[in-house]
Amino acid sequence: MKDIETPKLASDCVVFLPGGLLLIRRGFPPWKGGYALPGGFMEVGETAEQACARELAEETGLRVDPATLRLVGVYSDPGRDPRGHCVSIAFTARLDQGLPRAGDDAAAVEVVPDWHRVEMAFDHARIVADAERLWLGSVE
Amino acid sequence: MKDIETPKLASDCVVFLPGGLLLIRRGFPPWKGGYALPGGFMEVGETAEQACARELAEETGLRVDPATLRLVGVYSDPGRDPRGHCVSIAFTARLDQGLPRAGDDAAAVEVVPDWHRVEMAFDHARIVADAERLWLGSVE
């Protein structure tokens, strides 16, 4: 199976906090300095949920139990990442405590109140819109 | 991005037909000769939905519009495939016409009426159970 080439895999995390949407400022290209969801490449040996929780912790310092993540969708358009075909599995997390702080390859972390008005890297605005629909449709 | 190693990606398709669940008999290991969902590795340059429709066509001769597929879930347990870490993105398709015929690496294709009583390869029984819940929960 080593020789089989398939798209790369990443996981992104949508976190709505009381003050707004949790976003990072990207520390590296593409979209260096731009807003993006916390997330990154999945590692061999971890589940998509574990990858999502790990990236969230690495980039924002916030901890979430992987078992509590809810699937938002799978984003597999071959053109969504200019570096090559990379599929994102996006989750949303409910966090009731903790304050984010930037880490890893995030240059900064922000809670953005008016997130509909900012530009985001990749197709992250679409992922956020899908996550909003999921929250609106839930009975919680 | 070429050097980044992430898990392999596959797509599987759950198709409930009037006579039962559409399953193939695997032509190759693992689970050679066993029941499995139609599916296979995703190719670079295609969406997950396109991969799902392509594999369905190659293995069973049935055609489905990728845009009509509904996401069942993402299955990313590192141990789900004995060959290595492979994540499956599973969809379900509604097909109202066409008769399946075996092709490609499927040894045979069957419509199995009592699918709860047969053993399936990988974690496909779990994927089918999730798809059943999705259909039951839908208002169609």
UniProtKB/TrEMBL annotation, chains A, B:
Limits of the Nudix hydrolase domain: 6-134
Classification via InterPro entries: Nudix_hydrolase, NUDIX_hydrolase-like_dom_sf, NUDIX_hydrolase_CS, NUDIX_hydrolase_dom
Gene Ontology MF term list: hydrolase activity
Named cofactor requirement(s): Mg(2+)
Pfam families: NUDIX
Keyword check for Hydrolase: yes
Record's keyword terms, sorted: Hydrolase
CDD domains membership: NUDIX_NadM_like (cd18873)
SUPFAM superfamilies assigned: Nudix
PANTHER family: ADP-RIBOSE PYROPHOSPHATASE (PTHR43736), DIHYDRONEOPTERIN TRIPHOSPHATE DIPHOSPHATASE (PTHR43736:SF1)
Family membership noted in the UniProt record: Belongs to the Nudix hydrolase family.
Name under which the protein is recorded: 8-oxo-dGTP diphosphatase
Annotated organism of origin: Tistlia consotensis USBA 355
Lineage, uppermost ranks: Bacteria, Pseudomonadati, Pseudomonadota, Alphaproteobacteria, Rhodospirillales
